[in-house]
Amino acid sequence: MTALLLGAALLAGCSSTEAGKASRASAGSPDAPAVAKFTAVPAVDAVDVPVNVPVNVTVSDGTIDEVAVSNPEGAPVAGKLADDKKSWATTEVLGYGKVYSYSGKATGTDGKKIELKGGFTTLAPAAQVRGTLFPVDGQQVGVAVPIMVKFDAPVADRAAVQKALTVTNDQNVKGAWAWLSDQEVHYRPEAYWPANTKIHVEAKLYGVAYGGGAYGAADVTSDFTIGRNQVVKIDTPTHQLVVQRDGQTVASYPASFGRDADPELTTPNGTFVVMQKDEQWSFDNPQYGYTNVLKKWAVRFSNHGEFIHENNDNAANIGNNNTSHGCANLVEADAKAYYDTAMIGDPVEVVGSITTLPAKYDWYDWQVPWAQWQTMSAI
């Protein structure tokens, strides 16, 4: 009887083992699950996906046969398969507020095929803010030019925006960004740019979160060149406007500057920048009794209202007395001669006045001491 029971127990144990073996298919059997596995970033069904981060698809225990990400119109997004065929990534940015679809096939190390299906949705901004860049592509400018990025709406997250801005140059000159307002950030070096410097600026703003649901509308770039080093020096009591190139005086023009005793009408102290050139400009100041007064060869160097321009009507005082309302008056021949050499971005350095202009009239970059300028960065 005992022998019979022992035999029965042995028989039951064998049956259990064999049943277990039968229930586990080998990796190479037709019923075994495929070993390869797709991983997609963003994940299938993800929402609010950033548009400026590449889509990545990888496969483990296998290689990719084909993969694609398609936009709502069915057109494929550009992408590149890695040489080892284990990963694929997009090479173009995505669009805001769109549904994209995955499709893909891979072959596992077991020879079995797998598929990738599904999709994701990109974020839809509450607002898209556009940025513009100055100097523009291909422009040649003076040694005091600031690099400017201006936005068509206020920026809440200035640090995020600033991290998207890059300046490189062939002279390895270092500079710093400073926010002049919540819609404008400038970059300049500690001293003037070296002559003939080639500068490249990248503002990778597309997809950057500005805060408050606003995002960057587009990237902007610029490649421009610094021209010769030309500086205008004005010492108001001398009645002379001096032009220096590479530190050497190349011209000295008799001038009449702003009235010495009136703080509202002097040519103020400060380092300014040539902002604009016009062959003729209409001057208006109703407070002082004149409108639409046309003058030639006008070179603006401050948004406070200061120009270097022709004023033959004041010829008797040019070189002798300071009688203007803040501008530098030259006789026509001298105004034309200077105008022809002036370049946007040239510095204009003024001393000798009873008034120093506060740093608030664009472009006032060089009126801010370097140590203070650096504190105006958001990073």
From TrEMBL:
One of its GO terms (biological process) is cell wall organization. Residues 1-19 form the signal peptide. Pathway: Cell wall biogenesis; peptidoglycan biosynthesis. Keywords: Acyltransferase, Cell shape, Cell wall biogenesis/degradation, Peptidoglycan synthesis, Signal, Transferase. Residues 230-351 form the L,D-TPase catalytic domain. Transmembrane segments: none annotated. One of its GO terms (molecular function) is acyltransferase activity. InterPro entries: Big_10, LD-transpeptidase, LD_TPept_cat_dom, Transpep_catalytic_dom. GO terms for cellular component: extracellular region. The active site is at residues 309, 327. This is Ig-like domain-containing protein.
